[in-house]
Design goal:
This protein has two domains: 113 residues, Beta-Lactamase (2-Layer Sandwich); 143 residues, P-loop containing nucleotide triphosphate hydrolases (Rossmann fold, 3-Layer(aba) Sandwich), CATH 3.40.50.300. Helix 6 runs parallel beside helix 7. Helices cover 24% and strands 30% of the residues. Helix 7 links the parallel strand 11 and strand 12. The protein is of the alpha/beta class and 278 residues long.
């Protein structure tokens, strides 16, 4: 994991606990910032340090990371880059900031890449046990997990998929638009469609793979149409969204809504009317 990082950053990470490493903020000529166990701190070749002593990645190192993570062929991942991210071979999601170049109203490429947000996937067996127990007491149903970015939605979804696969043997379609959700154990009855938009993955998957359940990550407002079609077709959907409040959900089409409060912590579980689920 993180083999695409340049030598200086590799050395600095030897001093941290990878089990607690969730995110790296790599900014050209600015201090290297890492998320360790939910708290951000600065890092240099000797480990955690103060801001003034932090390692400062160069512009070339930022560009080298993107090149290495692409397998030294940015053309092979140009569709991802147009969306502002790149996925490493181990499921690391690399968000990219820079100058977006447009052609005919569509993103053509990203030039002068200046910042990277590298998110490291983690498999935490059992982190979805509470959700499984409380949401599925009367049988498997559709679930939407809500929280701001970085609070463990993807990790929980991955574990929930694994639990349902192991305990029910239902056929599960994983729609992994960014190649991050499937970076871990999903269970032996899961099929994965990577790097397709949700409408394409849902449509192709329902026609060809006959799923009982579809699992997907980071719903946008325009994705709810595809989800609604699946639910109306009798398919349960497990999904997540970058939303903080129940009232902000575009359509109440799920049976259960899980609101997180902090890294992986369940705050409350609601039904579609907003009532608390015991």
């Amino acid at each position: 994991m993180l083999e695409f990082l340049p030598p200086r950053l590799q050395i600095s990470l030897r001093h941290v606990n990878f089990d607690l490493l969730y995110e790296l903020r790599v900014r050209a000529d600015k201090p290297l910032l890492v998320n360790l166990g939910g708290a951000f701190c600065f890092l240099n070749e000797n480990g955690v340090c103060g801001r003034g002593n932090a390692l400062r990645p160069t512009q070339k190192e930022v560009q080298d990371i993107v090149l290495a993570a692409s397998g030294h062929s940015v053309y092979a991942v140009e569709n991802q880059l147009r969306q502002g991210f790149l996925t490493g071979v181990a499921g690391e999601r690399i968000g990219i900031a820079g100058t977006f170049v447009y052609d005919g109203g569509k993103v053509l490429s990203i030039n002068h890449m200046t910042s990277l947000c590298i998110r490291i996937p983690h498999a935490i067996h059992g982190c979805a046990e509470e959700i499984y127990r409380r949401c599925f007491a009367e049988g498997i149903c559709s679930v939407l997990i809500l929280s701001p970015p970085g609070e463990g939605k993807t990790t929980i979804l991955r574990d929930l998929c694994r639990l349902v696969s192991e305990r029910t043997n239902q056929n599960i379609l994983v729609s992994d638009e960014r190649g991050e959700l499937s970076a871990g154990e999903l269970g032996e009855t899961a099929d994965v469609i990577c790097f397709a938009d949700k409408l394409t993955a849902f449509t192709a998957g329902i026609r060809a793979l006959r799923p009982d359940i579809i699992v997907t990550d980071e719903l946008l407002t325009e994705d709810f149409k595809a989800v609604k079609r699946a639910i109306e077709a009798g398919i349960d959907v497990f999904a997540s969204a970058h939303l903080k409040r129940f009232d902000d959900i575009p359509e109440k089409i799920f049976s259960r809504y899980v609101l997180l409060n902090g890294l992986g912590a369940v705050d409350k579980i609601l039904d579609r009317e907003g009532n608390h689920v015991a």
